[in-house]
Amino acid sequence: MRKLLPFLLIVMGAGAGVGAGLVLRPPSVGEEATAGEGAEAPQEAPEEVDPALAPEFVKLANQFIVPVVENDRIVSLVILSLSLEVAPGSTEQVYAQEPRLRDGILQLLFDHANTGGFRGSFTDADNLVILRRGLKEVAVSVMGDTVRNVLITDIIRQDS
Q1: CB-based contacts of 40: which residues, under 8 Å, 6+ apart?
Q2: Confidence of residue 27 (pLDDT cuts 50, 70, 90)
Q3: Domain carrying residue 87
Q4: Quick check: is 50 in a domain?
Q5: Helix axes of 125-143 and 98-114: crossing angle, nearest 10 degrees
Q6: pLDDT on residue 45
Q7: Are residues 148 and 87 in the same domain?
Q8: Residues 31-63: pLDDT tens digits?
Q9: HSE-up of 57 (CA within 13 Å, CB side)?
Q10: Is 112 in contact with 138 (CB distance < 8 Å)?
Q11: Would 76 be classed as within a structural domain?
C-alpha cells in the first residue's frame, strides 16, 4: 500500500491538471460562434497587404539623450529610442540623411525639454501627442513625404 499511494497521487494530480486545462482553455474559432447568447460572429481575417505597399520601419541607430535643466542645473535625463515608418524602399535614404534627422530631432527634443515637456507626467497622452507631432514635422522637413510616422519605441526619464 505504501508503494501504491504515491503512484495514485501522481495519477490523480495529472488527471486534475489535464481536466483543469480542458475547462480553462480559451475557445477555438469554431466554438466562439456557438458559445451561447451574446456571442459575436467570428471576425473576418484581416486583408492581406501587398508587400510592395507595406511600410518599412527604420530604427535610428542611437538613442537620444536629453538633459532636463532647472535653475542652471541638470535635474534629470530623458532617453528616447525612435523608429521611422517610411515608404517601401526608403531605408537607405533614411540612413543617408540620418545626421540631418538626428540634428533636427535633437533640437526639437531640447526645445520640448526647455518648455517643460519632460517635467511631471511626461508620458501623459497629451504630452506625447505634441511630441510625436513635432517629431513627424521635423522628419518630414528633412525626408519629405517618404516619412509616414515617427514612433517612440522607448522613453525613460532618470531623475538625479
Answers
A1: 32
A2: low
A3: 56-159
A4: no
A5: 150
A6: 58
A7: yes
A8: 555 555 555 555 665 666 566 678 999 999 899
A9: 8
A10: no
A11: yes
Enumerate long-range contacts of 66-75, CB under 8 Å, 24 or more apart.
66/106, 66/109, 66/110, 66/112, 66/113, 66/118, 67/113, 68/113, 68/118, 68/119, 68/157, 69/113, 69/114, 74/160, 75/159, 75/160
Q: What residues does 80 pair with on adjacent strands?
A: 64, 155
* Chain segment 136-146, per-residue pLDDT in tens: 999 999 999 99
d(CA 142, CA 112): 19
Instruction: Tell me the residue type at 62.
Output: N
**27 phi, psi to nearest 5 deg:** -65, 145
CATH number at residue 113: 3.30.479
Could you tell me if residue 88 is inside a domain? yes
Maximum distance among all alpha carbons in the chain?
Answer: 82
One domain for residues 76 and 140: yes
Task: Write down the mean pLDDT value for the chain.
Answer: 84
